[in-house]
Specification:
By secondary structure, the protein is an alpha+beta fold. The chain contains three helices and four strands, in the order ββαααββ.
């Protein structure tokens, strides 16, 4: 297993960083490691809950529905235009019997455009705060892995005794 590299701002294993950047060796693990791990767990949970408030499902759904509506309505308008051209070229009769469908297709295209643009704006407004929270969570996870490397609790059994063994890297 490769040696753990402390995340930025964390002291190296076996020492505490003093003012000026010097490392002072410590005979035991830094005080408060267990408390820091508990704090990190609570903070990660809080950040994940806050991140869930910036869900991307709604904006993606809105954009997809708007885009689909826009594409279908444009297809219908294209078919109507082709049919009108063919009717006008081959007939001298009334070829304008589809105004209701044309108006519906234009309305659907307008609604689809609005949903698509609105969904994209909504999506792009949610991405930056979600990304920032993700970076904070990643940093805390990195620190948590580093600290867990330093502290290990395991059961200890032997003839006539049972207990816990606390191992610390320093």
């Amino acid at each position: 297993m490769p040696a753990a590299v402390p995340p930025a701002g964390m002291p190296p294993p076996g020492g505490m960083v003093q003012p000026g950047g010097t490392v002072q060796p410590v005979g035991m693990v830094q005080p408060g490691v267990i408390q820091r791990l508990r704090y990190i767990d609570v903070e990660i949970e809080r950040l994940e809950e806050e991140q869930s408030e910036y869900s991307l499902g709604g904006p993606i759904t809105m954009t997809a529905i708007g885009g689909g509506t826009l594409l279908v309505s444009l297809y219908v308008l294209l078919v109507i235009e082709v049919a009108d051209s063919a009717c006008n070229a081959n007939s001298t009769g009334d070829c304008d019997g589809d105004e209701g469908v044309t108006n519906l297709a234009y309305t659907a295209a307008l609604v689809g455009t609005g949903l698509t643009v609105g969904g994209l704006v909504w999506l792009f407004n949610r991405i930056p705060p979600r990304r920032a929270l993700g970076r904070q969570i990643d940093q805390l996870e990195k620190e948590k892995r580093y600290l867990r490397h330093q502290v290990s609790v395991a059961p200890a059994f032997g003839p006539g005794h049972a207990g816990l063994r606390l191992q610390m890297a320093f």
